[in-house]
Design brief:
Layout: H1 2-12, E1 45-50, E2 63-73, E3 79-89, E4 100-104, H2 116-119, E5 124-127, E6 133-136, H3 140-148, E7 152-156, H4 172-187, E8 197-202, H5 204-214, E9 226-230, H6 236-243, H7 250-260, H8 264-271, H9 276-286, H10 290-297, H11 312-316, H12 320-329, E10 340-345, H13 353-365, E11 370-375, H14 386-394, H15 396-407
Parallel strand pairs: 4-7, 4-8, 8-9, 9-10, 10-11
Antiparallel strand pairs: 1-2, 2-3, 3-7, 5-6
Length: 408
C-alpha cells in the first residue's frame, strides 16, 4: 500500500510518467513481440532483466524479481517466444530447499499491456483517452501472499500468435506447456531444480494448471509435487453461454480472437458468422484489459455480433473446427498422478460448477489423489463476476495452505 501510494503521488506531482498502453514502461523491461524460433529447445531462456514488482521491493516482502523471455510452443508444437516473471524471496528459509510456485494467472485481458508481468509493476492505472481502459493487477495480492510465506514464484503472461500478437486464449494446452517451460527458464536465473514445486491457477489459470498436471511427459525435468486447480473452464461452450449478457461478456471476444488465430481455416469459419458490429466489438475488447472490456461490452449480448442474431455460443457449437478444438482442450481424459486440490463455486456466474463436478468424478475414477472443495458462498445478484472472484480471494488462505503443506 505504501509503495502504491508513493507511485500515485509521484504521478500526480508529475515526478514520474504515467504508464501508457505501449510496452516498455519505465519499470517494465520489454523484449519485443513474440516470434517464431524454429529448432530452439523449449524452456530456453532468451532474455531477462530486473523487474520492480509493486509490493516486493522491500519489507515486508523482500524479493529479487526478473521479467524474462523464453522459448515455448504453440498448439501445433512450433517454437515461439513468450514472457513471464520470476520472484525470488529473500525471507529466511531453513526447512530444506525453498519451495516454488508455478502460477498461471486468471484473465486480466489479452492486450500486451495487460500481461501480468507488466501490470505487477503498476498495480492500478486508468486510461482516460479513448478507448477507455484500466489496468487492475488483481493477481498481485496472491503473488505477494506466497512471497510473504517465503516461497519463490514463477508466473506466465500466456503465449501469443507471432503473426498477430493475439493471445492464444482458450488454449489451455499451450498455456500449460508455457508454464512448465517458464519453470525451466527460471532455473537459468537461479530457481533451484531441487525446489519442491507446486502448481497454482484459477479460472483461465485453472485450465492451464489442470493441463500442466496432466502433461506428465512434456517436461520430464519438471516434477510438481501438487497442484491447486481453481474453477477451470472445463466446458468452454458452457462458459461462453454463462458470461453472455453479463458484465464479463467481453471474455467472449477474447475467445473468438484466440480461436481465430489458431489456423486460417478456423479464422474463416468464425469470421463468417460475425457481422460488422461483431468484428468491431471483438477488436475493442482484444486491445484493452479486463477493466476496458467491462466498459466496452458489459451487459451486452453476443446476439448483436452475429448475422443470425443468435448468441455466439449457440453458433460456435455448430462449427466443426471450433467443436473439435474445444473437445481437444477439455480436461479429464488423463488423470494427474500428483495430489490435486480441485475447487469450484456453486453460484459461479462465470464458470459453471456442473462441468467441474464432472471433472472431479473423472479424475477420481482414474485414480488421481484428489481433494475437492465447493464454495457455498451465497449468490450476489447482477452477474458481475463477484460470484467467480469472491470465493477465490475468500479461500486464499485455505487453498494456499493446502498447497504449501504438500511442499514443505
Amino acid at each position: 500500500m505504501q509503495q502504491g501510494s508513493e507511485a500515485v503521488f509521484r504521478r500526480i506531482m508529475g515526478l514520474s510518467r504515467r504508464p501508457d498502453r505501449k510496452p516498455g514502461f519505465d519499470d517494465v523491461p520489454h523484449f519485443g513481440a513474440a516470434v517464431r524460433v524454429p529448432g530452439l529447445k523449449h524452456g530456453t531462456l532468451v532474455n531477462a532483466a530486473p523487474l520492480k514488482v509493486l509490493g516486493a521491493r522491500g519489507e515486508p516482502n523482500p524479493a529479487s524479481s526478473y521479467r524474462f523471455e523464453y522459448i515455448t510452443g504453440d498448439s501445433a508444437g512450433r517454437a515461439i517466444t513468450a514472457t513471464g516473471a520470476v520472484l525470488f524471496s529473500t525471507r529466511p528459509w531453513t526447512t530444506g530447499p525453498r519451495p516454488a510456485i508455478a502460477m498461471a494467472p486468471s484473465t486480466q485481458g489479452v492486450a500486451q499491456h495487460c500481461d501480468p508481468s507488466h501490470t505487477c509493476a503498476i498495480g492500478l492505472n486508468a486510461f482516460y483517452d479513448k478507448p477507455f481502459d484500466a489496468i487492475i493487477a488483481y493477481e498481485l495480492p496472491v503473488i505477494l501472499w506466497f512471497l510473504a510465506h517465503g516461497l519463490d514464484v514463477v508466473f506466465i503472461d500466456y503465449p501469443r500468435d507471432p503473426a498477430t500478437g493475439v493471445q492464444y486464449y482458450c488454449d489451455s494446452i499451450a498455456a500449460a506447456k508455457s508454464l512448465l517451460d517458464a519453470v525451466l527458464a527460471s532455473r537459468q536465473l537461479g530457481l533451484s531444480p531441487e525446489a519442491p514445486l507446486g502448481l497454482w491457477g484459477f479460472s483461465q489459470g485453472g485450465g492451464a494448471t489442470g493441463w500442466a498436471a496432466q502433461l506428465q511427459d512434456y517436461a520430464p525435468d519438471v516434477r510438481p509435487k501438487a497442484a491447486v486447480v481453481g474453477a477451470p473452464p472445463v466446458d468452454l461452450f458452457r462458459v461462453l453461454d454463462t458470461v453472455d449478457g453479463g458484465l464479463l461478456t467481453g471474455v467472449i471476444a477474447y475467445a473468438i480472437a484466440g480461436l481465430a488465430v489458431n489456423s486460417s481455416e478456423m479464422f474463416e469459419e468464425i469470421m463468417s458468422v460475425l457481422n460488422e458490429r461483431g468484428v468491431s466489438d471483438v477488436l475493442k475488447n482484444i486491445t484493452s484489459c479486463a477493466g476496458g472490456s467491462l466498459l466496452a461490452s458489459g451487459y451486452s449480448s453476443s446476439r448483436g455480433w452475429t448475422h443470425q442474431g443468435t448468441p455466439l455460443a449457440d453458433i460456435l457449437d455448430d462449427l466443426p473446427l471450433v467443436v473439435a478444438e474445444f473437445g481437444k482442450q477439455k480436461l479429464g481424459r488423463v488423470a494427474p498422478e500428483i495430489p490435486v486440490l480441485l475447487w469450484g463455486s456453486k453460484n459461479d456466474d462465470v464458470i459453471p460448477i456442473d462441468p467441474i463436478r464432472e471433472l472431479r468424478d473423472s479424475w477420481a475414477d482414474k485414480g488421481t489423489p484428489l481433494t475437492w472443495h465447493e464454495s457455498q458462498a451465497p449468490r450476489v445478484p447482477g452477474r458481475t463476476g463477484l460470484n467467480h472472484f469472491g470465493p477465490y480471494f475468500r479461500n486464499l488462505e485455505k487453498y494456499s495452505g493446502w498447497l504449501i503443506d504438500h511442499l514443505v
